[in-house]
Amino acid sequence: MLKLMLKKIEDQDDEVQVKEEVHAIPHATGLHFRKVVEFDASINYSDLSLEEMDKVVGFVCEVFRNRFTVEEFYEGTPSHQLISRIGEVFTFVRTGKTVEELQKEAQSEQDEVGKK
Hints:
Layout: E1 2-12, E2 15-25, H1 30-42, H2 50-63, H3 70-76, H4 82-95, H5 99-115
Antiparallel strand pairs: 1-2
Helix pairs in contact: 2-4
Pfam families: Phage_TAC_19 (PF23857)
InterPro entries: Phage_TAC_19
Protein name: Phage protein
């Protein structure tokens, strides 16, 4: 299951309130995988244009069943986490696993090699 937390900042009575919204999906669809393959063939991820960035963020919204908009994703994601969050979604679509799950698997494999 992939979870994505977005922060919603609201001004109330001269105070800033931060609310966290957690969105989760149990799996990505085959159609999502197909779209990632299309992106891989047409986008240079290390040099995204603004249009490509919006397209990729729109895809993230699709993966989460459009429970939030492109603007809400941008507003709710800290700037320094934007690219990594998109990458986490793409990793989940490609593998069916979260980045944390893949890291645990890699660590387990290293531990097994170290025992031999």
